[in-house]
Amino acid sequence: MTIQQPTLPLNGAAPFNPADHRGDHLLVAEMVPSGSRVLDVGCGDGDLLQLLERRGVDGRGIELSREGVNKCVAKGLAVVQGDADTDLDAYPDDAFDYVILSQTLQATRQPRAVLENLLRIGHRAIVSFPNFGYWKMRLQLLVGGHMPRTDNLPATWYETPNIHFCTIKDFVQLCDEINVKMERAVALDLYGRPLRLNAPWWFWNLFGEQGVFVLSRRGKER
Amino acid sequence: MVNAELVNGQTLQPQEREVDHPSSLVALFGKDQPLSLDCGVDLAPFQIAYQTYGTLNAERSNAILVCHALTMDQHMANVHPVTGKPGGWLAMIGPGQPIDTDRFFVICPNVIGGCMGSTGPASTNPDTGKPWGLDFPIVTIPDMVRAQAMLLDRLGIDTLFAVVGGSMGGMQVLQWCVAYPQRVFSALPIACATRHSAQNIAFHELGRQAVMADPDWQQGRYFERGTHPHRGLGVARMAAHITYLSDAALHRKFGRRMQDRDLPTFSFDADFQVESYLRHQGSSFVERFDANSYLYLTRAMDYFDIAADHDGVLAKAFRGTRTRFCVVSFTSDWLFPTAESRAIVHALNAGGARVSFAEIETDKGHDAFLLDVPEFIDIARAFLQSAAAARGLTSSGT
Question: Do residue A3 and residue B324 have CB atoms under 8 angstroms apart?
Answer without folding.
Answer: no
